[in-house]
Amino acid sequence: MEKKKDPFFLSKKPEMNQNKNFNEKRQHQFDKNREVVKQDATDKKPFDKKTYRLKKYSKKYKLEQWEEQRKKKLLRNYYKEVVNDPAAGLYKPKTFDEDTTDSNEVGRFVRHPELIEKENKTLQIKKDPYHKAKERFDKIKQEKLQKQQEIEKAKEEKQKKLFEYKKKKQEKFKKLSKKTRKGQPVMTGRLELLLEKLQGQSN
């Protein structure tokens, strides 16, 4: 006679299988996420110290950034003025069409050369703010360069004079400090110095 199996043990088996499958899925998902994290870590760019230091400490880089921002700002303001100007976009100049000889308006819109010159002059006078700012900046830069050159020139002249003075002083000292074997001063050098002094006074 066969023994009946306990239903408690029968019901546990599928649950264990389910738990096993669930754990496997979970482990698989975890491994997958881990691989993604590893890939992200490998794809990360290395820290560039040179560019960081350049951005933080370089005056040239900061000046370039400032110039770029100012240029953008000026252009933005200029475009705003153009958009807000009610007269902008209304004027449409008529061109002289050489091909259409049948029309009555041939040669009607040809402008006088003097008028063209005047318009060119007004265009030259009316410059946009960006060009004005650029010209001002170039002017200031040139003035600074000139000042720097003058300072360097003055410095060089000063150094030259100092060198000459030191040289003369050394020569004078040599002449005055010359002595004979017995320790007496040599008078020729001293007499030469006196002669030079007298000649300088007479001149």
- What's the main sheet like? none
Secondary structure: helix percent? over 70%
DSSP strand tally: 0
SSE-based structural type: mainly alpha
Provide the residue-averaged pLDDT.
75
The low-confidence runs, each spanning 5 or more residues with pLDDT under 50, are 96-103
In terms of DSSP E residues, the strand content is under 5%
The rounded Rg comes to 46 Å
> Total number of helical segments?
6
Shape: flat
List the helices and strands and how they pair.
Elements: H1 7-43, H2 49-57, H3 59-84, H4 113-125, H5 129-177, H6 187-202
Structure overview:
This protein is mainly α and 203 residues long. It has a domain at 68-77 and 112-179. It is built from 6 helices and no strands. It has helices at residues 7-43, 49-57, 59-84, 113-125, 129-177, 187-202. The N and C termini lie far apart (152 Å). The model is unreliable at 96-103 (pLDDT under 50).
Structure in a nutshell:
With 203 residues, this protein is mainly α. Helix content is 74%, strand content 0%.
What key attributes describe this structure?
203 residues; mainly alpha; Fyv7/TAP26; 74% helix; coiled coil
